[in-house]
Design a protein that fits this description.
Helix content: 55-70%
Radius of gyration: 18 Å
Strand content: 5-15%
Largest sheet: 3 strands, antiparallel
Number of helices: 5
Structural class: mainly alpha
């Protein structure tokens, strides 16, 4: 059961991760502007072609699912959980400007999920 649950979550995580990273590289916005690839637009109407590019990105991400599935099935369920935990903490820290990746709370989260992730490879039994 854990394998089935983590398959779906890990697949969604990989696709979401790619969308966040690529989308973050394409777009930047503020209260009064939208900026993409170094171009600043005065409003969202001027930026519509680039928002359309986001839809195209989503379409492309749907078509890489076979490759994502092969990645998902190559890891044991607990390793998937560990990878999701570590990567989520990294993405969260990345989303906050000038955030300290190695603060005490983040380090605890990294350590716990790292240990969960390597558990299947240790040969230990619970």
């Amino acid at each position: 059961m854990l394998a089935q649950v983590t398959e779906g979550i890990f697949r969604a995580f990989i696709l979401g991760f790619l969308a966040v990273i690529i989308g973050g590289a394409i777009f930047e916005n503020g209260r009064k502007y939208v900026k993409t690839s170094g171009n600043q637009f005065k409003g969202k109407v001027e930026a519509l072609p680039f928002f359309f590019a986001t839809l195209v990105l989503g379409y492309i991400l749907q078509h890489i699912e076979p490759q994502v599935d092969s990645i998902v099935y190559s890891f044991p369920p607990l390793t998937r959980v560990g990878m999701i935990g570590v990567a989520t903490m990294l993405l969260f820290n990345y989303s906050v400007d000038e955030f300290n990746y190695g603060d005490k709370k983040s380090s605890i989260v990294y350590t716990v999920f790292f240990l969960i992730g390597i558990y299947p490879y240790t040969g230990l039994q619970l």
